[in-house]
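EI: anyone free to look at a 166-residue chain?
SC: sure, send it
EI:
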Amino acid sequence: MDDCIVVFVRETEIRESVCAAFDETRALLEALLPQARIEHVGSTAVPGSITKGDLDICVLVAPGAFESADDVLARRFRRNAGSDRSGSFASFVAGAVGRVPVGIQLVRCGGPEDDFLRWRDLLRGSPQTLEAYNDLKRQWHGRPHDQYRRAKSRFIEGALARGGPD
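SC: here you go
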């Protein structure tokens, strides 16, 4: 992904197609992992956000269910080679549903990567944090994706540590 550029759109422009993709993918995930909690996360889950236009889904499982859930998802989806993997986190690429690229983040409840819902809810509840995050994305529009990902990670880590943009 080193030579790819990142391009953003307003969440409102793709809301309908993302919601349909989420509903379809959630139904599949619920059939595969009936005990899991399935949540729409990422920028497309936040009204008023700027987004790359992809759908991120967080699949939360109990600590004792992580390994088997990882096996189930690995049989159905391709692992995201550009993402870290641990005993409490795995990332998968589900392809596109309609024209919406779908990523699945498998997370062990209570694990170190269990902050997807907290981040989504912070963005939904703090207009200041959302605007600062949108500003970051505007700055990176048309620039290298790998560098944007690093800047985004730093921003998210800092905002979660502070509980807001300041």
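EI: The chain has one domain: 9-162.
SC: 👍
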